[in-house]
Protein: Type III pantothenate kinase
Organism: Azotobacter beijerinckii
Amino acid sequence: MIIELDCGNSFIKWRIIGAASQVLLSGVAESAEELFSALEDARAHHELRHCRMVSVRSDEETACLEMRLIQRLGLHVQTARSAPCTAGVRNGYVDHGSLGLDRWMAVVAARHLSSKACLVLDLGTAVTADFVAADGEHKGGFICPGLSLLRSQLRSHTRRIRYDTAAASDFMMEQLTPGCSTADAVERGCVLMLKGFVRSQVELAMAYWGSDYDVFLTGGDAPAVIDVLPQVRVVPDLIFIGLAIACPIPS
Ligand SMILES: Nc1ncnc2c1ncn2[C@@H]1O[C@H](COP(=O)(O)OP(=O)(O)O)[C@@H](O)[C@H]1O
Ligand SMILES: CC(C)(COP(=O)(O)O)[C@@H](O)C(=O)NCCC(=O)O
Ligand SMILES: [K+]
């Protein structure tokens, strides 16, 4: 059985897959401690030998996590590394090592799932858009703050934007009429910013490729923008799909 880890800036997404790549167990951990406690519980029912992971955390934090996986759980660990070219996709960054590895995994996965040009959108702590041409050339992309960051910037840089954050997610899918309370005005405003960002990526993709492209959407806040992407392919495990391609486990 293989443990797969996607270490984002806010959460560590994890899952355990079986021999035929079926998902046996999965979860979202807020900290390394929470992750290890879940994996130690899982060990009671599953034989865990291999682990592959992708991390956008600091080199130190990533190395520390790798070491704990090896020492505490006795795992063989493979960590995704940057590359100028992976599985037919050519990294478009001037310095390929500075492209976020989650973006790279998502792009590799999109390429695997589609033979067309692709627009890849990931709505996590940050929101990212990446463009890949049909020949596998990664064209680069865009980064902007994600929903939680947009909200928290308003809270931390204003004196009077204060409201119950527990209710925040309730606003996401509601009709976006003008807000008549601080909570509504901020929540709807931030969701509209993301929808606008996503629409502008689609416009750019259309300018490049007409209608001959696929849009892939992933990340914790993906539901906030689905309605502005008519033909979108929502793939919550897009990063894990790319990770399996970048880090195959020899059998
Ligand atoms: N059940 C959930 N638990 C945590 N965050 C969630 C959940 N559902 C949606 N979210 C949203 O997902 C975002 C995190 O998305 P994620 O893709 O995990 O980010 P990252 O990869 O940067 O850690 C949070 O900012 C939050 O707004
Ligand atoms: C853009 C990101 C912060 C997104 O991270 P996430 O929201 O998934 O936690 C991450 O891909 C990253 O640190 N990238 C390095 C900078 C770059 O891609 O140019
Ligand atoms: K992201």
Remarks:
- The first strand starts at residue 2 and ends at 7.
